[in-house]
Design goal:
rod-shaped, Septum formation initiator
């Protein structure tokens, strides 16, 4: 009588490729759905645009502050700015003057 091969051996041979296939599918899913995956690129682009607008606003604010510092340079102080600062900070004004706050 011919000897039959056990059925268990092919099942053992399929374990390694099966585990490899599952690992490959997990890596592909992570590359697609993960925090740095393909689907997150749209969100990154949107956040990048928001950050560019914020950066432009901060550059404008920095330039305004840089100009104000330049106007307060002790070697060449702008008299109008000094007058404005003294009147605002020290609350010094003539009785007939009207102070209109701009901000």
């Amino acid at each position: 009588m011919p000897q039959r091969k056990p059925v268990i051996k092919p099942a053992k041979q399929a374990i390694a490729p099966g585990i490899s296939l599952v690992a490959l599918l997990v890596i592909a899913a992570y590359a697609l759905l993960g925090p740095t995956g393909v689907l997150a690129w749209g969100d990154y682009r949107q956040r990048l645009e928001v950050q560019k607008v914020e950066l432009a606003r901060l550059h404008d604010q920095r330039d305004a502050l840089r100009n104000r510092v330049r106007l307060l340079d002790p070697r060449a102080v702008d008299p109008d700015l000094v007058s404005e600062l003294v009147r605002r900070d020290l609350n010094v004004a003539h009785p007939d003057e009207i102070i209109v706050p701009l901000k």
